[in-house]
């Protein structure tokens, strides 16, 4: 009972704290952008590793301030915290993952795409393995036939949590080397697309 109450309070109190912390840290960083490919307008699928979620959504919103965007987020307590934090960035959660609610979230994502929304997804979420590529992420990308916006970053100084994804928290006033790519996997076979996208996403990831 106590755990249930604490979680109910947590999903109300914790997300605003996370968001404010994200923004305060963001303003302290020195940011260097590396445009491997020029930013594009309109719909896309935004793809990032789970460990980079502190920074990547903020980079996305820098490039796409007004683009309607939904994010596929897992159906568990941590996912609820992420979903409510993303709401402050005007990113609408679609709840589900490859483990839970896969069919329903795929239907919701396809509907959002048809309505003109972009989709944000972490292909190694919700529980890894780290830097793995899920079938669902690639299948949705192939079906949508949209360009993939990939954001990676490397901080000059950081903390790395002892979690499955080795979550990265750049230290205040560090320098962020931010890498922006546009990837096209249209027409590829699924396994080839998984391998290709994984290779591209690992080029500039912190390993």
Characterize this entry briefly.
The protein is an alpha/beta fold. It has helices at residues 2-28, 56-63, 77-87, 102-114, 135-144, 190-202, and strands spanning 30-35, 45-47, 69-73, 91-95, 118-121, 148-155, 158-160, 168-170, 175-183. α1 (2-28) packs across α3 and α5 crosses α6 (190-202).
In terms of per-residue confidence, which ranges show pLDDT below 50 for 5 or more consecutive residues? none
Q: Compute the number of strand runs.
A: 9
Major sheet: arrangement of strands = 1-9-6-2-5-3-4
Total domains, how many?
Answer: 1
Task: Specify the structural class.
Answer: alpha/beta
- What's the helical proportion of residues? 25-40%
Mean pLDDT: 92
The biggest beta sheet reads: 7 strands, mixed
Termini Cα gap: 40 Å
- The secondary-structure element order is HEEHEHEHEHEEEEH
Please characterize this protein's 3D structure.
This protein has 207 residues and is α/β, with parallel strands linked by helices. It has one domain. Helices cover 40% and strands 22% of the residues. It contains six helices and nine strands. The chain has a seven-stranded mixed beta sheet, with helices on both faces. A two-stranded antiparallel sheet has the order 7-8. A hairpin with a 7-residue loop joins β7 and β8. α1 crosses α3 and α5 packs across α6. The longest helix has 27 residues. The mean pLDDT is 92.
